[in-house]
Specification:
2 copies of one chain form a homodimer. Chain A has 14 helices and 9 strands.
């Protein structure tokens, strides 16, 4: 089988700004940020992480761990208005890779006026300036990445904040995963041919369709990451859904609709999925197959939920990269986001 | 302009089981359930509503009101596992229209074993039996509807539970809206011709595409309701997104992708949207228009957020009905959901 996905020279020409290096760097970025020290004090019950796009995904990953493994409540705010339950006992984590995300700066302003307990994660920009001026503790991550490609840094730093705050020992758990993730990455890189490369094969399965990425709640941050990475790296539409909720509505669109031929379902399964939901997912996949929908199914069989979540995210990042190659687009630039940001600065 | 959407006889033949009556009944259903009396005691800080599909949407609407207008935390659980923050001080509201939703019964079982403070909303089934056996207070809603068409009843009853519990005076607020909503409905019904009927015109705009329904957080429960009603009533794929998050990822799929021609963006705007987000949404719509994407834009200009939310939900319900007519399908049956439910009972 001959494909551009095994043509390293061609891929290298298309990927002019070496997005592949940023994707390959994930385990190293994670590793290097897992020793971040930030001076956080926290005695409350709730955590609110505010961030947008690539800066918010680390929040989703960690909120999911916090909600399952601790008695703390944690939510991710993608917007401008603090929920009513956020009070002086809440830890507000402001995450903006660039440091200039309007939404995050707006929330920070409100949070300061309310005297909240704040900590930040950024590579610089206005957010860092405010932290310096106001004495707000912050974790510094390296500059020079696309925000979406800084996930390893943002995740590692935020994990350290949560561990220092006494919420959950997630930084320690992630530290143990760095080597296994590096090992896992070896089978996803461009040098590994299609036959042995899960990410390349999956990209070929999703060429020319709109992927709809499903998972149980175990892997829902990974499903969302697939969606946004396919949007930004591959320049494609993509959507997500969650099992079992999708069986109460989406399934009608797949099985009784006519537009489904432009879309293809992808299922991310974790060994640690709830056993009942595993069964439901299995039946759902069977129903879709019998209906001729050709679902793409990926199994993650590691021992822990966080390991499977990290692995699923890594596969998705590589899939989005290979889809960019199949689409003949440079994965790094996101001109339409830049255009919107320019217009926002002039209009608001 | 001649269209089947103005052919009442033809629509009546297609809608064999009179889904139109269930949709038309929304304000009356809401009204009749707003005097529900349930014996709830609550002194905690958090509320967890568990439900799936049509039974969960009332939770989304109310959680959004609670989060903005009170110091309580409320989340909607669409799944089987209670979050770690749920404790004896949490009010668990179990909502299953049929009373036999597996996910809700599973959560209820865990909640009972943990000794949580529980209240239920149902039309009967196993959930009602358990409540009777165990002395769990519950609100009874009428049988005989599709779960998605019982929204008025589920919303009204759950609002009464939250008001009785001292969380938020939302039942009183909804009572004031019943008459205005009945008035508003008069311009959406099948008897009103296309030229004067916003829902018919919108359905025509969405014929043959995959609608992607956007809103700010103000109307996000309405966007989700559009999505699921279009799935179930119209037998079509549909998706949602939220502004401003979509500008950090989705926009690339729309502006730089190739599959966007099968999809069409819909924007639900509320007069009560945050002013900065209004500006962002306006710029986003301009960008999509300049890119030739023809977004469908609907404005809801009432004084309050909850009024606009109810109005947006009503328009969406009628749009999904008219789309069913345009697709030549009976809006009521959802055979693929029934099929999955049958298979679930045998496999789990």
């Amino acid at each position: 089988m001959s494909s551009i996905l095994d043509n390293l020279e061609w891929m290298s020409e298309l990927d002019r700004e070496r997005m592949i290096d940023q994707i390959n760097g994930f385990p190293d970025h994670l590793s290097s940020s897992l020793c971040t020290e930030v001076d956080v004090e926290f005695t409350g019950k709730g955590i609110c992480l505010c961030g947008m796009g690539g800066s918010a995904i680390s929040g989703d990953i960690l909120a999911d761990c916090v909600i399952r493994e601790s008695e703390y409540h944690m939510s991710v705010l993608r917007g401008m208005e603090l929920p009513g339950w956020v009070d002086k006992e809440t830890l507000l984590i402001a995450v903006s890779y660039s440091g200039n995300t309007k939404e995050v700066l707006t929330v920070l302003d409100t949070a300061q006026s309310k005297g909240l307990n704040i900590v930040a994660v950024t590579s610089g920009g206005r957010l860092m300036e405010i932290c310096e001026e106001e004495g707000i503790p912050y974790a510094m991550v390296p500059t020079g990445f696309q925000p979406r490609a800084a996930l390893g840094y943002l995740l590692g730093s935020t994990a350290c904040i949560l561990e220092t705050a006494g919420v959950i020992p997630i930084a320690s758990n992630l530290t143990h995963l760095v080597d296994p993730l590096k090992k896992f990455q070896e089978i996803l890189v461009p040098e590994v041919p299609i036959e042995e490369n899960l990410a390349k094969r999956t990209a070929l399965d999703l060429e020319g369709v709109v992927p709809v990425v499903y998972s149980a709640s175990e892997l829902s941050p990974a499903a969302l990451r697939w969606h946004t990475q396919i949007n930004e790296n591959s320049k494609m539409m993509a959507f997500t859904g969650e099992v079992p909720e999708c069986n109460h509505n989406h399934i009608v669109g797949w099985m009784e609709g006519s537009m489904d031929t432009f879309c293809r379902p992808v299922f991310l399964r974790s060994r640690t999925d709830n056993p009942s939901i595993k069964e439901i997912m299995s039946v759902t996949i069977d129903v879709l197959k019998e209906g001729g929908k050709s679902p793409v199914v990926l199994d993650f069989n590691e021992e822990t939920k966080i390991h499977n979540l990290m692995a699923a995210i890594m596969v998705g990042d590589f899939v989005s990269y290979y889809l960019a190659m199949l689409n003949g687009v440079d994965p790094l630039p996101v001109e339409s986001i830049q255009d919107l940001k320019r217009r926002m600065s002039s209009s608001i």
